[in-house]
Amino acid sequence: MNLKFIDEYRDASLAKEYVNAISRAATRSWNIMEICGGQTHSIVKYGIDELLKNQVNLIHGPGCPVCVTPVSVIDSAIDLALNKNVILCSFGDMLRVPGTSTDLLKSKAEGADVRVVYSPLDAVKVAQDNREREVVFLAVGFETTAPANAMAAMNAAQLGLTNFSLLVSQVLVPPAIDAILSSPENRVQGFLAPGHVCTVMGMAGYEPLVTKYRVPIVVTGFEPLDILQGLLMCVLQLESGNFALENQYTRSVRAEGNLHAQKLLGEVFEVFHKNWRGIGTIPESGLRLARKYEKFDAEKKFNLRDETSLENPQCMSGLILQGVRKPSQCPSFGVSCNPENPMGAPMVSSEGACSAYYRYRRSVES
């Protein structure tokens, strides 16, 4: 079919065209991974993986930023929150993420001053209003959230605040794809790259991966129609033996990305090796505050120790984040692990794969 990029991205007739086109094009089942929790939820909610089960094996990657935040970071946030001189600010989706023995929500119930904010700049305002106490913002996420966190550090510097800091756990997507493709157990043949990340960072970071590993990567949006078109673009490449970087999400993503945001990140942060929950250390896959802004680094300010914290041994979230297992293949899924009593972050986060399966497809596969 003649591919047309989407203006009306909830067009049911066009969705059927894409499904039929994928069915006609695919001569075998292709392993394609999405690196975006929003895509995962759309795939599971609308049954895209089941609809195309004979043409595409959709593998859920580490696309949930809350889920890949290390246990040690959660433990550090809890320790800080329990400090009577500290106000711990966070987005709401972090409060239920399990640490080694508890979470921020339970700590709040026990008296810790944990406050839900809607922007890191809200946390800066809390620091302005409470100068007698230390205010720490739990800054997590992919490249998408990094500019706002950078702005918070810059804003705090401009205001001359000495009682504000960031507990940073920012991770980068391209190094994670590199780690997946370089694994001897890799079975992924193509990727749907996260559109929101590329809106900020552009597409250049994915070109070397296409060349190095000879895999198609399609930058894709989050609506079902976006995903179907992205899958068709990927399948057409795989069937023809071509390997290129393509942009399905043209209504939002430009090749160069947001240059202003990138400049901001370059000033406030620097790249370093980063530990991912359930995966391990991936070289040059994280951001930390650069020397100019390190006075706002909570890890250094409070002399936090980078200790290795262990996952619940009954939790398979590491294998799920790596795409080795699917949530419904976990014996604990929906039984001893559920949103009320989560064993791992993927069951908590609104972008987690376990959360998606529990909400839309609660059955256990053997």
Averaged pLDDT, please?
93
Distance between the amino and carboxyl termini: 38 Å
- CATH class category name of the domain at 71-172 and 258-301: Alpha Beta
Q: What series of H and E elements makes up the topology?
A: HEHHEHEHEHEHEHEHHEHEHEEHHH
CATH architectural name of the domain at 71-172 and 258-301: 3-Layer(aba) Sandwich
The fourth-level CATH homologous superfamily of the domain at 71-172 and 258-301 is: HypD, alpha/beta domain 2
Class by SSE composition: alpha/beta
Q: Please describe the biggest sheet, giving its number of strands, its sense, and whether it closes into a barrel.
A: 6 strands, mixed
- CATH names the topology of the domain at 71-172 and 258-301 as Rossmann fold
Low-confidence stretches: none
Number of strands: 11
* Helical proportion, percent range: 25-40%
In percent terms, what proportion of residues is strand? Answer: 15-25%
Gross morphology: globular
The total count of helices amounts to 15
Rg over CA atoms = 21 Å
**How are strands sequenced across the largest beta sheet?**
4-3-5-6-11-10
Model description:
This protein is 37% helix and 17% strand. It has helices spanning 12-25, 37-45, 48-51, 71-81, 104-109, 120-129, 146-159, 173-182, 195-201, 207-213, 224-240, 259-268, 298-301, 317-321, 353-360; strands at 30-34, 56-60, 86-90, 114-116, 134-141, 164-171, 190-194, 217-220, 245-247, 269-276, 280-289. The protein has a six-stranded mixed β-sheet with strand order 4-3-5-6-11-10, with helices on both faces. Strands 2-1-7-8-9 form a five-stranded parallel β-sheet. The mean pLDDT is 93. Helix 7 (146-159) links the parallel strand 5 and strand 6. Helix 2 (37-45) runs parallel beside helix 15 and helix 7 (146-159) packs across helix 12. With 366 residues, it is α/β, with parallel strands linked by helices. The protein has a domain at 71-172 and 258-301: Rossmann fold, CATH 3.40.50. The protein is built from 15 helices and eleven strands.
